[in-house]
User: What shape does this take?
Amino acid sequence: MLRITIISVIVAAVAGLCFFSCTTCARQDDEDVFRGIPDSVYDGELQVANEVVETMIRDVASPIEMAYLIKSIDVPFSRDYLASTKVSSTFTTSSEQALALGIYATDLGYINMYEKTSSVLKYISVMKDLANEINIGQFFDFNTLKDLATNSENIDSLMYISQRSFTRMDEYLRESHRSKLSALMIAGVWIEGMNIVARVAQEKRTKEIGESIADQKIVLQRLLIVLKNYSKDPMIANMVDLLDDIALLYEDVNIVTVQGDPTVEEGEDGTLVVKYNDVTTIEMSDETLNAIINKSIEVRNKLINVE
Amino acid sequence: MKKILLLITFSIVLSFIGSEIKAQSSEDLLDMCRVIAGDATYVRDFKVPLEAGTPPPVKNTAFLLQRNSYKIVVCNSREYEGELIVEIYDTSRLIATNYIISSGKYYDKITLPANKAGSYRLKMYFKDGKKGSAVVMLALNPK
Assistant: This one.
């Protein structure tokens, strides 16, 4: 009788343990199933250490930052700037799908920033499919996003969940040693961000827009270092060639920063406010700016098969 | 004997329930950060895992765009004493920290208007080498 009771107790304890840590169990199962193909399978020689690559990947701005800048200079929303969701099925390899995910994530950031929630569903649907294809769909909170998209009052949460999903997908790719796909996703973010800002610049040229485009010289340099690491992949090699054409134009852009001493003061709400007294000067001719704008749009269109 | 064994089982199960309820996950900390950030828009977050003593600091980087104003929010787990110190560097130059040694003041949010696009380094460690767990959220201030 005592033996039966002891066994029952042990069974109950083990059951309790599994039940109350079920979140972890499920997550581990998912991770085992969805680990995907790691970079170690990549047969090309990596020129830059993985840790350096990961740092550089993190250094490319997030999907909403360029849209944030555009919104702040009062440029109206345009659907024409966005990649059509109809071409999503043309992305068939994992490299193309990762790139497309970055492109659509940027478009989603732009849509969210302008609170055009009626377009959200189409974009999150293709993003969900692409994320599933490269086995990171478990980090894309489609159902919550879908619910939030039905009500424009939820825009803050919609932006937050969209952005958080993107961050988690990117983190997971790097954690599971698939930095190549992470690099491609980030490349998609940069390419589409440049496309949107270039399209805006074609219609409304301001000093801020011009300088924002010039600033991208630094990001592109880092992005190319990362991508060249994986250029044994023919799709990436092709992309590097296209981006090199933009980088060549950026050689005529000079960014000079004169350092000033930063100062701090306490804001009203207890925030520490830093006054960063560096002064940056950008030297770029209109011809160079126009050439960068046109080439950036051309490259993006080639990469998503739009003529 | 049977009662004692049942009591042990009940305690084990309860301890698991307790730890589930109490433990502040990094997502909980991120939610806290969102509240502190107010109307700033989430960009990304950095998780700083439990540390003790004086381990090497956690290093991370963030690319900030010129003309954007950023908010850096620090959320410490209430389960540990450790308060996370964040130092922000522009290459090797310290431009901001949330702990001012001279005044002893600790800030859970910093506003940093970036007037230079570039990669900024974040160095993070727990004050006085105490145990801690924290999340740092990078957000965009409204214009």
Summary: Chain B touches chain A through 51 residues (CB under 8 Å). Confidence is low (pLDDT under 50) at residues 16-21 of chain B. The radius of gyration of chain B is 19 Å. The beta strands of chain B are 41-51, 58-64, 69-76, 84-90, 93-97, 99-100, 105-106, 109-113, 118-126, 132-140.
